[in-house]
Amino acid sequence: MSGRGVREAQVEATRAAILDAAERLFAEHGVHTVSNRQISIAAGQGNTAAVGYHFGTKTDLVRAIAGRHAKAIAEIRDRVLAEAGDFTCVRDWAACTVRPVTEHMAALGSPSWFARFNAQVSADPALFEVMMNEDDLVSASREQLRNVLDRFLPDLPHQVTAVRVLMARHLIVQMCVETERALAEGSATARLNWEDTASDLADAITALWEAPVTRRPGDAASK
């Protein structure tokens, strides 16, 4: 390997170490309570300005962490959709929505930090938007899944759809947090299997989407 190649490999290794350290610290303590200096030290960097040098702002760092996971999840989603063929029911759709996330989590091994990082970022409106933008950049298949749901539930009002999208996302995020934590801690009281978590989530999300809509006086009747 040339001198340039060695240097590039060193830079990539440093960036990976920073991303790993930042993801863990953000997951454990929250994004805004962790300093770049703490991340640099946790990543084994003698230069405490390494985070700013390699990634810029904290938002840029969050974007980089989200981006590497979004790419991996999008690749799984594309494969899952290709394997699924034609959907026959909402449960098929729900399984394809959940499995890319849980399969990615399983591939990370244990302990992992992404689910808890995701939960921390989701609590901040600005950072949540950053994370969603990263997913949209790499995954056209999310729009394909949305179109499938419209086919099964064509009469669901837009306002109800928007609320249930949020409900489903929070359910996936929080149940992944619970499973990730249980695996890391060796808890015997929670699901210790990502396949079981995926199945439970698909069942619950199916029930959520197929639940009746209780209209209140003054609610819009049209989509």
Automatic annotation (TrEMBL):
Keywords: DNA-binding, Transcription, Transcription regulation. Residues 18-65 form the HTH tetR-type domain. GO terms for molecular function: DNA-binding transcription factor activity; transcription cis-regulatory region binding. InterPro entries: Homeodomain-like_sf, HTH-type_TetR-like_transc_reg, HTH_TetR. This is TetR/AcrR family transcriptional regulator. The lineage of its organism: Bacteria, Bacillati, Actinomycetota, Actinomycetes, Kitasatosporales.
